[in-house]
Amino acid sequence: MVRVKKSPSKNISIEDVARSAGVSITTVSRVINKFSSVKEKNRVRVLEVIKELNFQPSIFAQRLATGKSNVVALVIPRYEGMFYSFYVLELIRGIGTLCEALKLDLLLHLTDAKINLNLRGAGGIIFSDIIGNREQLDDAFKSGTSCMVINNYVSDLDVDCIAVDNVGGGVSAVEYLISLGHKKIAHLTGDLITQAAQQRLQGYREALKKHGLVVDERYIFKTDYSRGHARQAAEKLLKITEPATAVFVASDSMALEVMAVARELGKHIPDDLSIVGFDDNPSGLYGPVALTTVRQPLVKMAQEGVKRLNQLMQLGQEKRPKAQKLILPTELVVRESCRAPQ
Amino acid sequence: MVRVKKSPSKNISIEDVARSAGVSITTVSRVINKFSSVKEKNRVRVLEVIKELNFQPSIFAQRLATGKSNVVALVIPRYEGMFYSFYVLELIRGIGTLCEALKLDLLLHLTDAKINLNLRGAGGIIFSDIIGNREQLDDAFKSGTSCMVINNYVSDLDVDCIAVDNVGGGVSAVEYLISLGHKKIAHLTGDLITQAAQQRLQGYREALKKHGLVVDERYIFKTDYSRGHARQAAEKLLKITEPATAVFVASDSMALEVMAVARELGKHIPDDLSIVGFDDNPSGLYGPVALTTVRQPLVKMAQEGVKRLNQLMQLGQEKRPKAQKLILPTELVVRESCRAPQ
DNA sequence: ATGAAAGCGCTAACAG
DNA sequence: CTGTTAGCGCTTTCAT
């Protein structure tokens, strides 16, 4: 009838500590949770025992008891190309380090969106981009879980999000080229499945129109952020009749590829072709010609996202505040890859 | 005295399902855990209700009850440079996708080794490289947690590990250069804080000795895997008197940098300098001269590691089998960046 | 085939 | 300042 008390498990529990320290479980719990009310003498004693027994509280029991979870799930869609980028690594780095600092547990989900994540364990979820997983976001949001969308401005749901001013970045890149006197400006897009790539393209178009230049669709090359496609596009770009004198490329790694192709074809940069990239990837600094680019605050975006999510998580499901939607500014970094057309 | 029953929380529990389905909690639990003993009719009914209520069991309660955890913690040391690599991304990709497939929760820890991770929650831990966090490994191992070390052969602890044959890779790279007729072969090392970089250097030395060539320390350039340092090293390398005719570089991204510098200095590859990289990073394919390199099975290493760890986790703490230590072979991929010395 | 009830290890009222 | 005790939501005997 009565279940036999399990043989002494190896894992020490709060009870062992309490017994060993000669206090109640509650007191130990208070020490763990830094309640100020515990008598100094007891506190010290308990701490000693904890160290001695090498005790670590079970996070499962803690969470079951409190109903709170400080697990942050990071959901990254797993589409081709996405995972080969400077961008993803920066994101993981930004989020990872801040979570570590805030003592949040970071759960990584590389999802192809077909999987039904068990989100129930997570206290908060960060969606990095929404590619084919909008439903997951909606579900999670509806269920009351704290959500944060990164690198994707979501206008049709009252969810917190933080993105980069891609349109503005595109505009500033192209306006800069225009200011140098360029009229024939091409664009290599990123994967247009991403909002960022769409918006950079939009910025490109807006800037041209604003300055009374026609948008020539032959100057728009659609790629997927990969170096391979960038190379193909660059070859076309450089070989068409009446070639462009400048190009705005949606990512630095692609821009480097364009530079390489140009050199191989005997073109000189920036004399024969001006190039502006996007990212401020350090790799852009080490070539023969330092790359002019649009800096986007990736790590900052990641970290602000985590910070805000943490706030939301602390507030809890009940009182979800009005969503905060941020767009971080970009900054044109002028280096050596552009000059006036010859 | 008696605590008031909490107002109906939003989270449905197994109890709600049981009530709604007209069965006991136990039966629901059995359905969840796919016990064959449940009558078909009940099983179907319960499943219906689960779907209807959109119920997901609390993993915390499950784990508290079972004492088992299918959380895998991935510990990545956070030292300079480490995080800017193809390598890390490949690792995360490999581990991430397999965990997703095996329904393991992946907890990501970017650690600077000072933090005391609460490992108690994790059912298994993957240490990616051991840089300044050997103590964590020892602790975790001692406590009985299933451990797996990746990209680092650990000989002084009976822990499972899986690494790449870096020595062999280095040897094959250098022997290939020797076979082409090179005698003056330089080496750009990776960050020698890593075992991989040490071993590639070792392979370089072994190959030279084996073929009766002297190891000239002036031909060994120590870097940290970064492109910036690679550039500096490349400049020195190309400018010394009696320059090498070939170079074995510890990573592809650095090798690409060396190629770029060579071109800038007017050297032709492979005529003036033969280059072998390490990684088989796709970026190596897109340059004007495709990079000859040593392919290392990163994703495979990551995935085999997870697979094995999963086995260990299923076995549980009690019966930890004898550790299995694997070294995965590398493969020389000959492309266009090498030829006989002129 | 099913259910009652005892934990799992911790937190949080509440009462001293 | 400290201890008692009732859960948190699930799994797992043990009986039926």
Descriptive overview:
With 342 residues, chain A is an alpha/beta fold. Chain A has three domains: 14-66, lambda repressor-like DNA-binding domains (434 Repressor (Amino-terminal Domain)); 71-164 and 299-328, Response regulator (Rossmann fold, 3-Layer(aba) Sandwich); 166-296, Response regulator (Rossmann fold, 3-Layer(aba) Sandwich). Helix content of chain A is 40%, strand content 17%. The first copy, chain A, is built from eleven helices and twelve strands. Chain A has helices at 14-21, 25-32, 40-53, 59-66, 86-102, 134-142, 166-179, 195-210, 227-239, 252-264, 298-315, and strands at residues 71-77, 105-111, 124-128, 146-150, 160-164, 185-189, 220-222, 246-249, 274-279, 292-295, 325-328, 331-333. Chain A has a six-stranded parallel sheet, with helices on both faces. In chain A, α6 links the parallel β3 and β4 (146-150). In chain A, α1 crosses α3 (40-53). The radius of gyration of chain A is 26 Å and the shape is elongated. The relative contact order of chain A is 0.13. The model of chain A is unreliable at 1-9 (pLDDT under 50). At the A-B interface, α4, α5, β2, α9 and α10 of A face α4, α5, β2, α9 and α10 of B. β2 (105-111) of chain A pairs antiparallel with β2 (105-111) of chain B, so a sheet runs across the interface. Chain B binds a DNA duplex (16 and 16 nucleotides) through residues 1-6, 11, 13-15, 23-30, 32-33, 37-39, 42, 57-58, 60-67.
